[in-house]
Amino acid sequence: xxPITSTADLKKAIQLLEVEHDASGKQLKAQFYATAESLKPxxxxxxxxxxITSSPHMVDNILGTTLGLAAGLVSNVVFKGLAGPGLxxxxxxxxxxxxxxxxxxxxxxxxxMGEIALLRIFRNKRxxxxxxx
Length: 133
Fold this sequence. Notes:
The chain has a domain of 92 residues. It is 90% helix and 0% strand. It has five helices and no strands.
């Protein structure tokens, strides 16, 4: 900025600084509202879910973990009926952990086998319903 030597130059400089101040104030307010909107719990959850679903590896990891836990719980329920109370306390957690680990490591093959089974089930129902008509 050049040195100010007259009152007219001083008034022009003040007006320019006021315009810059107003512009930066509006920009700051807009940024504040955008930040406040993005920090709302609903928007945080929405953006997190969008990030999770956009990453194929994350979806596979979550699916694998969920299938592993579900299989472990199912095996625990099934095993409770087969073993006695003393043996069940010892072997049930080990069995549950082993089944969970197996399912989570083999998610892809188990998913493809499940898809094939579902296709066969629904295809057979379609064929039976068509043959009745």
